[in-house]
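Lecture 7, part 2: worked example. A protein chain together with iron/sulfur cluster.
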Amino acid sequence: MSKAFDIGIEALAAGPQPATLGAPETTPAEAAASESRASESLPIAPNGKSFYIETFGCQMNAHDSEKVAGVLLERGYRAVDTILQADLVLYNTCSIREKAAQKVFSRLGEIRFATPRKVIGVLGCLAQQEGEEIFERAPWVSLVCGSASYRKLPELMAQVEEGGRRVSGLDLDTDETFETEITRRDNPIRAYLTIIEGCDYACAYCVVPHTRGPERSRASEAVLAEARRLAEAGYTEIQLLGQTVNSYRDPSPRGLNFTQLLREVAAVDGIRRVRFTTSHPNDFHREIVQAIDDTPVLCDHIHLPVQSGSTPILRAMRRTYTREEYLEKISWIRAARRPFSITSDIIVGFPGETEKDFEESVTLLDEVGYDSIFSFKYSPRPNTTAATMPGAIPEAEQARRLAILQDRQRQIQIARNEKLVGGTFEVLVDGRHESRNQWSGRTTSNRPVNFTSPRQNLLGEYVQVRIARASANSVAGEQVL
Ligand code: SF4
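Predicted complex, written out as structure tokens:
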């Protein structure tokens, strides 16, 4: 690979883009911030075609879409904001829950008659899971490519451009990661940077090992070079991504572990905040806490998905740790000198979950004191061992448990956020709400903050905010000048 680029979308759009119905307007400040991050002007010949990508699911998918967009821009495609304007429509899909998968097939149904002359592609986890079956269910789809095969996207696109039908990339045996010459950066404030792809765990409910393939780490030099390019392009916050980000093992002779890589990314000139997600508790070691505690650039936030508070359910889920082992890791975090925010993912209604098991998830919320959680009803997925487990919990009971869990977590969040009232925190500004005359941003602990300020053009700036009010999901105050 000769050269890589990180580029703001405006730099490659050929001419002014028509407005999108229902899409948020780009403010002049956002446009300026994005343009300032366009690091190179590229010698790309337009091919007269346009593309639109709709992304479902997690941040890994969002960042994959940025890289897929980079591949298309490099081939001369022009990005557009609506399906109607696009010659090529791609759905980057998620299959983590049944609902997400259904949504994709419903989109495919809608586009069939609305836009008969477009080329349609299905990418990502659902593509990997359903494979060529998608061509049977939706014969108007021309391209199916799983996330583990994105490296082959240029050659697959060449086949599609030559009029190929039923073009597919569904290999899982790739031993390299998805590197692109250019990456379209959609977020002008926070840059995503994948350090590890795939997963070698085998959680009973999860499709990821099947859809994203085995774990592959990127060489540390490639990661650091990308971090330096992002800093040069004006980014100050980087989020390192991986399905199990802390399982990172540098495949190059340098052989860095995750903590060593964290320290090196944090040392890149110009980078002020480094986040990472998602961590597996099994690979969460005390030295990670130590590194964060020593290095202010590493953010005061750890997302450590527990999935259940009950050891028997964790065993059934094949999560490879007990409640007590998880809580021991939490105690390392709580012993740090800096007050870290801890967040998590929890599934309720896993097959065989008793009332007692469920109560253990609720009591875990209090024991840890999470700042927020993502909580879900268990949803059986194809190709997972849990799908055929006995003891399915009825949907109504799952919903009851979820409501109880979320209500308890809401109370905890209110109490935790109220403790911040009166304090002053550094906020990286990432949004503006004109109707409320407020700015929004995040603290290093990833807490959403809304605030007022007499100043203009704050997007991308670090400001000090004094907190005056708290609610379950955010805090509010005013800028300290
Ligand atoms: S660690 Fe488990 S839940 Fe996470 S991606 Fe791997 S198999 Fe899925």
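Residues 199, 201-203, 206, 208-209, 243-244, 280 surround iron/sulfur cluster (CB under 6 Å). Confidence is low (pLDDT under 50) at residues 8-41. Keep this in mind for problem set question 3.
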